[in-house]
């Protein structure tokens, strides 16, 4: 079987399994609560696997390995932060959020603060973060299908949209819970099995990472898909066919140290031992610095690392597709158990992408030339294992990648669709069930079609880097709202509104500037690329200061609200029964 045929078969199997799982959920989706929160009846083990399924996105499955290949030791904070974020979530807000009785983050904002204005602002932020997170999922699907089969770049994202809409529309949260739990184990095995085989092959070859700049391990032919500026770390003769620095060349060509321009369609043939030219958006590092702390080649690496840690650890609690999962547990106790199991699952999974990134530095360093380092996981099996075994392992990795795109896109679609159906398409409590579900399905279409259209013209950026920007926006907005809303009774609606606007505008502006204009030089570039370190404290400061200035706006029944959030489960159940 050819590599492209095996990849197509793998994608077809994953898509079919997702639709079948969604159909199973449809048979049990009888009420509106099934569509929004699966009737709050998901057990901790099922919920933990489903959370792992939707949380381990394109950034986790493909992006981390690509970042390790390009930047080295410093980006190990990504997997550490992704896992530690759930510990922070467990300690600070998991159980109180479940006790609040909310369906969505905007629901919690209204329950805690009694303000429709804050609710609507939170709704806008949920949609913004959801769309920002969805774009790299769809780009990752396009990259995967194009890399493995040569399909057009628009097709992979379209496949994800069709499958997700089918699964979400037929059964809502109940439907995707089964699908995401299945997809987590598929993703885990899709990385684990090839990793074991690659480890055995590496051990037999005794192929370590040499000192100096990355070199081609085998003869490799690279075709440039667009005009690209690359940096030569050393003077070298390379075989180039196409446009180089404005002239057409054919055959061996001497390249001096510094920058050179390769035209679209130029073919670079790398022989074994050739030093790899590096696209200018990535650092040209020696392997010695690549393997050391603060050796990533980024500007102000200590600040970048600390801000990244803050963004991921605090941003986890502000991700709408993650938080909505905690509303599906029966009670706060099961919510804590779910979070504990999630931490165990994530800790196990994140060992694997790191291993792929290290192997990629030796076996697929040519990706530094094109900048498509997110393809590291996809290309490694067939680079390291020849023949049918390499093809089958590549197909397995492709299946896992599409499971990652589908599961995360499903969770994001449900969370965004829930907000759109309630806030944009009407919120009347007396609407018939059929009307509410119809609004949810229309919201689901808007939730995923808009980011698909945005993903088409976008320049490809590192998947993990783009997702990290979404974490920064979540950390600068919802983290202060949740922490202060749960633990500080003096928080007022005016202060929450001021903080959400401040953090949302500043973090979103920094994100957009970074995506559109690229990373600037010096401290301005570092502060815009990683805004969490200054945006999160500023939002906390705004909320606290404005709350102290508007003490008279604290809602009069705040004591009852806080009891609802913090009282033991038995007390909350008794209060709810008395209210009824």
Provide a descriptive summary of the structure in words.
With 580 residues, the chain is of the alpha+beta class. It has 2 domains: 3-205 and 291-579, Up-down Bundle (Sodium/glucose cotransporter), CATH 1.20.1730.10; 220-275, no CATH class. It is built from 24 helices and 7 strands.
Physical arrangement of strands within the biggest beta sheet: 1-6-3-4
Helical content (DSSP H or I, runs of 4+):
55-70%
Mean pLDDT over all positions? 83
The count of strands amounts to 7
- Runs in which pLDDT lies below 50 for 5 or more consecutive residues are 34-39
Q: How many distinct domains?
A: 2
Topology:
Elements: H1 3-26, H2 32-37, H3 44-55, H4 58-71, H5 77-92, H6 94-99, H7 105-113, H8 116-149, H9 155-205, E1 220-223, E2 228-232, E3 236-244, E4 247-255, E5 258-262, E6 267-270, E7 278-279, H10 287-290, H11 301-315, H12 320-326, H13 332-349, H14 351-363, H15 367-370, H16 376-384, H17 387-423, H18 433-455, H19 463-487, H20 493-517, H21 522-529, H22 532-549, H23 558-566, H24 569-579
Protein traits:
single chain, alpha+beta, 24 helices, 580 residues, three-stranded antiparallel β-sheet, Sodium/glucose cotransporter, four-stranded antiparallel β-sheet, 7 strands
What's the short version?
The chain is α+β, with helices and mostly antiparallel strands.
């Amino acid at each position: 079987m050819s590599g492209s045929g095996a990849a197509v078969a793998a994608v077809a199997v994953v898509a079919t399994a997702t639709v079948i799982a969604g159909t199973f959920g449809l048979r049990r989706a009888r009420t509106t609560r099934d569509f929004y929160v699966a009737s709050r009846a998901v057990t901790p083990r099922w919920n933990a696997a489903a959370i792992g399924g939707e949380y381990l996105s394109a950034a986790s499955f493909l992006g981390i390995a690509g970042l390790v290949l390009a930047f080295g030791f410093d980006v190990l904070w990504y997997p550490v932060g992704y896992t530690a974020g759930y510990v922070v979530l467990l300690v600070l807000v998991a159980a109180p959020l479940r006790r609040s009785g909310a369906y969505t983050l905007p629901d919690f904002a209204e329950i805690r603060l009694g303000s429709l204005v804050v609710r609507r602002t939170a709704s806008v932020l949920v949609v913004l973060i959801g769309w920002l997170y969805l774009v790299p999922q769809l780009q990752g699907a396009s990259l995967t299908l194009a890399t493995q089969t040569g399909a057009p770049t628009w097709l992979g994202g379209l496949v994800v949209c069709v499958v997700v809409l089918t699964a979400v529309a037929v059964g809502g949260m109940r439907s995707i819970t089964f699908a995401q739990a299945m997809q987590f184990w598929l993703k885990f095995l899709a990385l684990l099995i090839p990793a074991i085989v690659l480890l055995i092959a590496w051990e037999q070859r005794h192929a370590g990472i040499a000192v100096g700049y990355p070199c081609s391990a085998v003869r490799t032919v690279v075709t440039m898909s667009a005009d690209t500026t690359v940096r030569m770390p050393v003077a070298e003769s390379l075989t180039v066919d196409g446009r180089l620095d404005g002239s057409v060349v054919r055959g061996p060509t001497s390249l001096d140290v510094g920058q050179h321009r390769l035209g679209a369609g130029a073919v670079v043939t790398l022989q074994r031992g050739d030093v790899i030219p590096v696209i200018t958006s990535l650092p040209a590092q020696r392997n010695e610095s690549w393997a050391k702390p603060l050796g990533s080649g980024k500007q102000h690496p200590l600040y970048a690392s600390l801000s990244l840690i803050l963004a991921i650890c605090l941003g986890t609690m502000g991700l709408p597709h993650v938080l909505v999962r905690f509303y599906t547990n029966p009670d706060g106790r099961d919510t804590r158990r779910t979070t504990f199991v999630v931490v165990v699952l994530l800790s196990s999974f994140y060992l694997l992408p790191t291993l792929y990134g290290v192997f990629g530095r030796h076996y697929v360093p040519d990706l530094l030339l094109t900048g498509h380092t997110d393809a590291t996981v996809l290309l490694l099996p067939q680079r390291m294992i020849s023949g049918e075994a390499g093809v089958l392992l590549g197909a397995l990795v492709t299946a896992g990648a599409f499971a990652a795109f589908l599961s995360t896109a499903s969770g994001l679609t449900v969370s965004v669709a829930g907000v759109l159906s309630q806030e944009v398409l009407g919120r009347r409590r007396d609407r018939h069930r059929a009307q509410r579900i119809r609004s949810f399905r229309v919201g689901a279409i808007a939730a995923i079609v808009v980011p698909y259209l945005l993903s088409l013209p976008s320049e490809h950026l590192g998947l993990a880097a783009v997702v990290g920007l979404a974490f920064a926006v979540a950390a600068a907005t919802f983290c202060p709202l949740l922490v202060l809303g749960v633990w500080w009774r003096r928080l007022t609606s005016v202060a929450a509104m001021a903080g959400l606007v401040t953090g949302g505008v500043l973090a979103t502006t920094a994100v957009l500037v970074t995506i559109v204009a690229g990373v600037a030089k010096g401290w301005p570039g570092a502060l815009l690329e990683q805004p969490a370190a200054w945006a999160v404290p500023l939002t906390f400061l705004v909320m606290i200061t404005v709350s102290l200035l508007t003490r008279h706006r604290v809602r009069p029944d705040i004591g009852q609200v806080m009891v609802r959030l913090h009282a033991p489960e038995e007390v909350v159940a008794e209060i709810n029964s008395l209210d009824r």
